[in-house]
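User: Design a sequence. Structure:
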């Protein structure tokens, strides 16, 4: 991740995020034959895009069965532990293979005697235990950038409520947060109108043309221990 960036330097910011995303992709490719430990201590949670959604609350709602095509061309039905979350994002509970992530199933949660909510809390605890607590650094125009030891998991710290409660303690109006790409997480105090305007532009630009896999086109507000949609996500493309 880059250090402080000029307010007009979104291209340079995007380049920094590209390095983080490329590192994650290379690691995944190297470890695609590994099998992850499916114990409770190895459970993590990642955020992924749900194009066209604009969910207004944080309640976890199961995706239900999905269809997939195997490398042999067969269509199979499977049910992962995926949950519609907030705005245009959903949560995937996964097992950490070190260089790969293996999707958990509802049967895994039953085996581990965890509800989805308990599993999510455990996943965040595991994230902090294995990869450490995130840091913050100035980004541009009054914005702050969240940094993490595992850049490809930076967006997962959106789910770390303890982290955001600590940051929000000095900002009673709350924090406005963008997570346009999996490798990046940026925020501004809701009371700083200029920084929030910069964030509105930044999330749109990075979501539309940033490096790596996109995540969310929305802006989110963290206030009083809860998340809400601050700016609605873009409509899904036809």
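Assistant: Done.
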């Amino acid at each position: 991740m880059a250090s402080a960036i000029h307010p007009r330097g979104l291209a340079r910011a995007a380049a920094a995020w590209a390095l983080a995303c490329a590192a994650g992709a290379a690691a995944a490719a190297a470890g695609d034959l590994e099998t992850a430990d499916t114990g409770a201590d190895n459970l993590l949670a990642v955020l992924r895009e749900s194009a066209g959604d604009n969910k207004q609350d944080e309640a976890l709602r199961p995706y239900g069965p999905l269809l997939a095509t195997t490398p042999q061309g067969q269509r199979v039905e499977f049910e992962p532990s995926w949950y519609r979350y907030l705005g245009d994002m959903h949560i995937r509970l996964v097992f950490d293979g070190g260089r790969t992530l293996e999707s958990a199933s509802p049967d895994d949660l039953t085996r581990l005697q965890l509800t989805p909510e308990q599993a999510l809390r455990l996943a965040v605890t595991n994230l902090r235990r294995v990869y450490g607590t995130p840091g913050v650094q100035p980004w541009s125009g009054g914005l702050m950038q969240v940094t993490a030891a595992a850049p490809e998991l930076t967006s997962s710290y959106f789910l770390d409520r303890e982290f955001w409660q600590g940051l929000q303690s000095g900002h009673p109006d709350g924090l406005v947060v963008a997570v346009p790409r999996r490798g990046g997480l940026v925020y501004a105090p809701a009371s700083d109108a200029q920084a929030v305007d910069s964030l509105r532009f930044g999330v749109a630009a990075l979501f539309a043309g940033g490096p790596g896999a996109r995540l969310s086109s929305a802006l989110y507000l963290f206030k009083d221990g809860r998340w809400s949609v601050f700016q609605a996500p873009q409509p899904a493309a036809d």
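Residues 38-130 form one domain. DSSP finds five helices and 13 strands in the chain.
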